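Data card: per-record layout.
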Amino acid sequence: MRSPITYRHWQPGDDDAILELLLPAEQVDENMYRNKFEGSDFEAEGIRLALVNERVVGHVGSEPWSFFIEDKCQRFVTVGAVFVAQDMRRQGIAACLMQDLHAHFQRKGYRGSILDADEEAAIRLYQKVGYQQLTQDLQTQLLPNQNSAQLKWTEVNLSDLSALPPLDEMWAKQNFPVSCDRESLKVNQYTMSGYRVLRQGQNIVGYARWDEPSEYYRHGLIRDPIAPDVDPMEVIASLQSAIPTIRTWQTAEGGRYEAPLRSLGCTLEPTTTVIMLSSFGQDIDLTGYHRTAWW
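The structure for this 295-residue chain is written out next.
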C-alpha cells in the first residue's frame, strides 16, 4: 500500500531533506537557500512542502513583492522553485502545493501572484491553478548610431540613487509589473554597477539595467529603460548613440517600446519566458497599462 502524501509549510530542520530534492535538479543555490530568511520578508508559510513519510517529494517557494496597480501599491506573491520528484509526478502534487500557497496569501490580503515560466509543461500547470499569460519577453538587436543625442547615458553615482525610486513610482503608474517596494530597492550601492542612468543636462530622467558583453550575454543586454516622461523614440536614439557595438534589448509584448522599435525596422523575437498572473478574488484591471520587461 502506497504511503499517503502530506502537505505542510517549512519547519526548522527541513532544509537537508529539501536540498536532497532541489540541488540535483539545480533548482536552488545551497547557501542562498539556507540563508533565505535573512534580510528579507520570506516566511515559513511561503514555502510549501509535499512529503511521503519523511521524504520531501515536492516544493514550492515564494517571495512577497509590491506592485503598483489599481491606483495603489499592493502586495503580490512571486513564485519560484516549483519542483516535484520524478517518481512522484502526475499525481497533482504541484497543483496542490500551488493552491495551498495561494490560499495562505489570499487570507493575508494579497492581491495576486506573478511568476515567469519557460517550459510548456510548467505553463499548463500554472494555467490549471488560475494563471493567465500577462506578457512574453521579446528580444531585438539594437544597432549603434553615431548621431549625437540630447540625452546621455552615464554610470550610476551614489548621489544618483535617491532620484531612481520616484522614477519607479511614475513608471509603475503606466506599466505593469513594476516593483514599488522601497524596502528592497533594485539599485543600491552594491548593485549600481549593473545599471546606467539617463541624463537630460543635470537631471536624471531615466535608468536601465545594463549588462555589458560577457560569456552570458554575447552582445550585452539592456532591459526596458524606466523613463516615464521621455518619448520612447528619444530613449531609443539615446541608446543607439551610447552603445559602441550591437546590443541585445529585452522588452515585452504589449510594452511601451514594442511599436517604436518595430517602426525602426527592429525584429523582435519572442523568448521562451512568459510572465503569468493570477488574481486573488476580483480580476485585476490592466486597462491602460503597458507591459514591461520585469527585472
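Known properties of this structure: DSSP finds seven helices and 14 strands in the chain. The longest strand covers residues 55-69.

See the next section for split statistics.
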